[in-house]
Amino acid sequence: MDTKTIIGEFKEKFKSAILGEVAKNEKRVIISIKPDSILKVADYLYKTDGFRFIIASALHTKEGFEIHYHFSKDEIGLILNIHVLLDKNKPEIESLSNMFNASNWIEREMHELLGINFLNHPNQEKLISEGNWAEGIYPLRKEFKNS
Amino acid sequence: MSKKTLIPIGPYHPLQEEPELFKLYCDGEIVKDIKWETGYNHRGIEKLSESKTYEQIFFLVERICGICSNSHPFAFANAVEEIADIELTNRAKYIRTIIAELERIHSHLLWVGLAGHFLGYNTVFMWAWKYREPTLDLFEMISGNRNSYAMFKVGGVRRDIEEAKIPVIQKVLDDIKKKTDLLTGAVMDDPVIHARTKGVGILTKQDVIDYGAVGPTARASGLAIDVRKDDPYAAYPLVNWKVITAEAGDVFAKAQVRLLEMYESISIIEQCLDGLKKEKEGAIEVKVKEIPEGIGNGRAEAPRGEVFHFVQSDGSNSPVRHKIRAPSYVNIATFRKSCVGQTIADATISLAAVDPCYCCTERMAVAYDNSSGKKILNAKELIDLSILKTAEIKKTLSGRNE
Questions:
Q1: Chain B hits for A144, Cβ within 8 Å
Q2: pLDDT of B8-17, one tens digit each?
Q3: For the structural domain made of A3-92, what CATH number should be given?
Q4: Strands, DSSP E only, in B292-352?
Q5: Which of A11, A89, A107, B339 fits a disulfide with A118 by CB distance 3.0 to 4.6 angstroms?
Q6: Is the torsion defined by CA of B151, B157, B159, B164 positive or negative?
Q7: What residue ranges do the domains of chain A occupy?
Q8: What's the gap in Å between the CA of B218 and the closest CA on chain A?
């Protein structure tokens, strides 16, 4: 299986959910999808295609909140970033932690540092700052300044 | 109803990347559940990174971990060079690889020593740490620092390895190879170590996939994932070596993987030194004008597994977002699988098998009685419990021989 086949089949299957694609090279592909299809997409990548979940990176931009879910196909060295854009005022998305444990901590971390809500997360408690950080202040949001 | 005992391990681990508190809930001698608290020493490096320039970030990420202080700059360099489409000179590739593999050797030796200590083999601890010293001396010779080598920059390395230094490095490698033979022999053939580590702290292949574990933790469970092979960077595609795996997934398999990996590291360094001899004239860096707008996914294989750096650039001189994932972040979560169902005496070595630098366990693990809140075991007693178990096995085994 090469990148072309894998990405081709993926695009065919999720035609209606895909919003855009950037393929830098054979080993780095970014695909933007609609947030409500994340469960189906992750399920397909993890169970059918045998991708490994590396981690997710969330960031705060002018458009809203973005998450890159990094999946790795180790056999061919491919990193597939599944990119979603969440609402500026009410960022929320389905949790992947009922599918695999690898996303459990990072979703708690994103909830804590950026205030993104992960629906149906098994245990969305604070991971890092339990007991020593104010509620409702999110240090990774752009309005939070250093020093 | 039986009484459950809570054993906290942590939270302060000055030598660990991520200080954490582990609470072992025990029924009698068996660990029934494990919970963790983290973030005691959260330094906000991801946020800090957004206010630094690309050159400064190398020094920042180098300080994430003291033991594998080279792997974070390596992954960060890979990410930034991906954004700017930079191809390194061969000389820079070889030097980067030599530093990374020397680091793997010293990190694995450190782990073997600690694992020996937890099992009551203090001689192994003394040996391993003694053999590790010369690698740190090499770092001092090459970079001027025994730790935090400050070798990397965008587009290359900051210091060259001159020809005169190559025989010195070669001599240390020859010595380490002999000592590794000695250590591997001592671990692989010792019936007591077999009794203490085989079948202990097992992680199945499915557990590894579920938790996304990486590095020796994954390879010991039969999952042949190694960034150096899967997504080759620096000089790894230019040299011959193989990925070491084991099937059992227990503590013994993890020790086996680490010990055998040291031979591969030695071989990789030797091939890179040959490469340096051939590429005498090459530059060690390429000039980089600017980092354009874009996204970089950089990864590198640290001694403990895959380090992942996500960098988003807007074309200015510092990143918009810099996400860092250290290997222990995913490996530590597997404790729920490897420790539950074990005895307390085995929990120490099961926790240490993931290599989260557990040197400090003896200063902080304390067992409390859940109902009275009274201390029943302190850290030293916990390790003593593990050492006692080894002594008992030794006695049984020697009795059988007689």
A1: 47
A2: 776 654 334 4
A3: 3.30.460.80
A4: 293-302, 305-314, 321-325
A5: A107
A6: positive
A7: 3-92
A8: 12
